[in-house]
C-alpha cells in the first residue's frame, strides 16, 4: 500500500517549471522539447491536484511500476502533440494483461519532455510518481534502460498512438523490444506513447536510477534567478564547459524513427579558433575537436544558451545560435561493462573505446 504523502513531497504547479528546466538539461538534446510537456503537466496538476512523489521504498514488493515515455523522433513529437487519452489507454491495457492496477507511474527517461509529461500523466491517472527513471538522462533506443543493464527481461510493452491504436507485445529481450516497438512507432508516424519494462517494486531495487525527479527540480532551481546562470548550472552539474561558441553548420534528418545529424560549433571569445562537431541520434552522442574526442556516451553532453543556460534540444538547434557545450559524468550504472556495452559509443556504431569525460585531457 502507498502511504499518505507529506505536503513537502507533493509536486505542485510551481514545481513544473524548474522540473522542465532540469529535464531539458538532462535530456542531452533529446527526450522531446519540454515546452509542450510543461504546459500539459501544469494543466493536469491544476485540474486534478498535486502529484505525490514517492521513493521506491514506499512501495510494497508486489506493487507494479508503470514506466511511461514517448518513443520516436523528437522532431516529429514537437509537432504531433499526443492525445490526453493515450495514458488511460495504456493503463487499461496493462490492467487487462496483468490483472491488477499499477501502483505508480515512472518516467522511462528523465531527460527532455519525457521527464516532464509523467507528472501530468500521473495526475490524470490518479497515481503517484516514482522519484526514479531508467536512464538518468535520455537515450534513443528501447533497450538502453537500466532494467536491461541489470539483466531484467521486458515482460510486456504497450504502445498507444494519437489515433487510439493500442499495441501490446511480449518481446524475448531488449533488442527485440527495440525492433518491434520502433516498427510500431514508425507506423504511427514516428511518435507514440509507450509503457516499457513494466516491473514489480521487488525487481526494481538496483535496476532503476533513483532520485532523478528531485535532481531535475534541483537543477532547474539552481539556475532560476542566478546572477550567472551558466556558472550556476555548470557548478550544480559538476560539468566541464567544452566550448562557448555559435552554430555554424547543421545537418539533420528524420529517418527510421530517429532524428540523426551533426552540428558544428565554432568558438567565440576565449574559444575563438576552436571548432567542435556534435554527432546526434536524437541526443548528443559524441563531441569531437580536430579528430580528438572530448566527450562521448554514456556521459552526458548538453547544449545550452550561453546567456540563460537554458538547454537547447537537438530539434531546436539553429544556425548562428550562441551556445555553450557542457559535458559531465553519467550514473555509475552506465560505466559498468554491461552499461558500456548497452549504451557506450560502440552501441551507436562508433569505433571508440569509452573514456570517462573527466579523464579526457
TrEMBL record:
Transmembrane segments: none annotated. Pfam families: S-Me-THD_C (PF20906), S-Me-THD_N (PF06032). InterPro entries: S-Me-THD-like_C, S-Me-THD_C_sf, S-Me-THD_N, S-Me-THD_N_sf. Residues 174-357 form the S-Me-THD-like C-terminal domain. Residues 15-169 form the S-Me-THD N-terminal domain. This is DUF917 domain-containing protein. It comes from Sinosporangium siamense.
Amino acid at each position: 500500500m502507498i502511504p499518505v504523502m507529506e505536503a513537502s513531497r507533493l509536486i505542485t504547479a510551481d514545481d513544473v517549471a524548474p522540473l522542465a528546466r532540469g529535464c531539458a538539461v538532462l535530456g542531452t538534446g533529446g527526450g522531446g522539447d519540454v515546452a509542450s510537456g510543461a504546459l500539459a503537466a501544469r494543466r493536469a496538476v491544476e485540474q486534478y491536484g498535486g502529484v505525490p512523489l514517492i521513493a521506491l521504498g514506499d512501495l510494497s514488493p508486489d506493487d507494479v511500476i508503470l514506466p511511461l515515455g514517448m518513443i520516436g523522433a523528437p522532431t516529429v513529437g514537437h509537432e504531433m502533440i499526443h492525445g490526453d487519452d493515450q495514458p488511460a489507454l495504456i493503463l487499461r491495457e496493462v490492467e487487462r494483461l496483468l490483472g491488477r492496477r499499477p501502483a505508480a507511474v515512472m518516467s522511462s527517461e528523465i531527460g527532455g519532455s519525457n521527464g516532464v509529461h509523467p507528472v501530468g500523466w500521473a495526475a490524470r491517472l490518479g497515481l503517484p510518481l516514482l522519484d526514479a527513471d531508467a536512464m538518468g538522462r535520455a537515450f534513443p533506443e528501447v533497450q538502453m534502460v537500466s532494467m536491461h543493464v541489470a539483466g531484467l527481461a521486458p515482460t510486456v510493452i504497450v504502445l498507444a498512438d494519437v489515433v487510439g491504436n493500442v499495441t501490446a507485445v511480449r518481446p524475448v529481450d531488449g533488442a527485440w523490444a527495440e525492433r518491434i516497438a520502433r516498427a510500431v512507432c514508425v507506423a504511427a508516424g514516428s511518435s507514440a506513447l509507450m509503457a516499457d519494462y513494466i516491473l514489480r517494486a521487488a525487481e526494481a531495487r538496483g535496476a532503476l536510477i533513483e532520485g532523478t525527479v528531485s535532481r531535475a527540480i534541483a537543477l532547474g532551481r539552481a539556475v532560476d534567478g542566478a546572477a550567472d546562470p551558466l556558472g550556476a548550472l555548470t557548478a550544480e552539474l559538476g560539468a566541464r564547459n567544452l566550448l562557448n561558441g555559435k552554430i555554424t553548420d547543421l545537418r539533420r534528418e528524420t529517418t527510421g524513427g530517429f532524428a540523426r545529424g551533426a552540428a558544428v560549433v565554432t568558438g567565440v571569445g576565449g574559444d575563438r579558433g576552436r571548432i567542435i562537431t556534435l554527432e546526434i541520434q536524437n541526443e548528443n552522442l559524441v563531441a569531437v575537436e580536430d579528430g580528438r574526442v572530448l566527450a562521448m556516451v554514456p556521459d552526458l553532453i548538453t547544449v545550452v544558451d550561453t546567456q540563460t543556460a537554458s538547454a537547447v534540444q537537438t530539434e531546436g538547434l539553429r544556425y548562428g545560435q550562441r551556445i555553450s557545450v557542457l559535458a559531465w559524468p553519467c550514473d555509475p550504472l552506465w560505466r559498468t561493462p554491461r552499461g558500456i556495452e548497452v549504451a557506450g559509443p560502440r552501441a551507436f556504431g562508433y569505433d571508440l573505446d569509452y573514456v570517462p569525460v573527466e579523464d579526457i585531457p
